[in-house]
Amino acid sequence: MSLDQNKIPQATAKRLPLYYRFLNNLQMQGKTRVSSKELSEAVKVDSATIRRDFSYFGALGKKGYGYNVEYLLGFFRKTLDQDELTEVALIGVGNLGTAFLNYNFTKNNNTKIMLAFDADPEKVGKEIGGVPIYHIDDMEEKLGNVKVAILTIPAQEADRITERLVVKGIKGILNFTPARITVPDDVRVHHIDLAIELQALVYFLKHYPLEKIDNEEENTY
Ligand SMILES: NC(=O)c1ccc[n+]([C@@H]2O[C@H](COP(=O)([O-])OP(=O)(O)OC[C@H]3O[C@@H](n4cnc5c(N)ncnc54)[C@H](O)[C@@H]3O)[C@@H](O)[C@H]2O)c1
C-alpha cells in the first residue's frame, strides 16, 4: 500500500498530521472505528471535506460503521514517512534536554536524536544516551543534513539559536522554550508548553470527565 504523493491535493496532505494524531489517540483508547462526524468534531474539519480527503487514501467509510481506525493509521504512517528514519538535533543539554537524550524516540517512532549541542564546556565532548554533545559554536559545522531540531535552551537564547538554525537550513523546530520564535514561512515550528498542556488536562477533567467503560475497551495509556 503506497501513496503517490503527487495525487493528493496539498490541502489534504496538510491535514494528514491532524487526522493521524487524533486516530492514534483513538487507537490507544482501544477504538477500532470512527465516523466522519466524530472526526469532524475532533479535528474541526467539516465532514464532507473529511470524506473527500479519505477517498484519496482509498478509505471508503461504510454507512453505520464509519472508518476502520487501523487501516487509516497504517496508511498515514506510511504517508507521513514514519517508516523512514529522521535525524534530529537537540540544542541545550540541561534538565529537559538530558531527559530527551536518555529517552530518545526510536521505540515508538522513527526519529532519532543523532547529536546535541550545549554552551557549557563541562558537557561538551561527553555522550548521553549514546548521543555526542558538541559545542554550540560548532553547530553549523556538525549539523550536516539534519533538518529537525529540538530546542531545550533558556528562553532568552531561543531567537539567536533559531536564526542560526534557519540559516543552516533547518525546516522543523520543536520548541520547548517559552519563547515565541519567529521563522520564515518555509520553516515549521511546533511549540510545546507543558504548563498549557497541564492546564488543558485539568480543564478537560473538569468539563469532559471520562466515563468508565467495560474491560476490553479500557484506556491503555
Ligand atoms: N525542565 C522542565 O521541566 C521544562 C519544562 C518545560 C519547558 N522547559 C523549558 O526548556 C528549556 C530548558 O529547560 P531546562 O530546565 O532543561 O534548563 P537548564 O538550565 O537545565 O538547561 C539549559 C541548557 O542549555 C544550555 N545553554 C544555554 N545557552 C545555550 C546556548 N546559547 N546554546 C546552547 N546551549 C545553551 C545550558 O548550558 C544548559 O545545559 C527552558 O527554556 C525551559 O523554560 C523546561
A few lines on this structure:
The protein is an alpha/beta fold and 221 residues long. The protein has helices at 10-28, 36-43, 47-56, 69-79, 95-103, 139-143, 158-168, 194-207; strands at residues 33-34, 67-68, 86-91, 111-118, 127-128, 131-135, 148-151, 172-175, 188-191.
List keywords for this structure.
single chain; 221 residues; alpha/beta; Arc Repressor Mutant, subunit A; Rossmann fold; 2 domains; seven-stranded mixed sheet; 39% helix; elongated; disordered C terminus; binds nicotinamide-adenine-dinucleotide
Question: What can you see in these coordinates?
Answer:
The chain is an alpha/beta fold and 221 residues long. It folds into two domains: 5-79, Arc Repressor Mutant, subunit A; 86-197, Rossmann fold. Helix content is 39%, strand content 17%. The protein contains eight helices and nine strands. It has helices spanning 10-28, 36-43, 47-56, 69-79, 95-103, 139-143, 158-168, 194-207; strands at 33-34, 67-68, 86-91, 111-118, 127-128, 131-135, 148-151, 172-175, 188-191. The strands form two sheets. Strands 5-6-4-3-7-8-9 form a seven-stranded mixed sheet. Strands 1-2 form a two-stranded antiparallel sheet. Helix 1 crosses helix 4 (69-79) and helix 2 (36-43) crosses helix 3 (47-56). The longest helix has 19 residues, at 10-28. The model is unreliable at 215-221 (pLDDT under 50). The chain binds nicotinamide-adenine-dinucleotide. Nicotinamide-adenine-dinucleotide (NAD) binds at residues 91-97, 117-120, 136, 152-155, 157, 161, 176-178, 194.
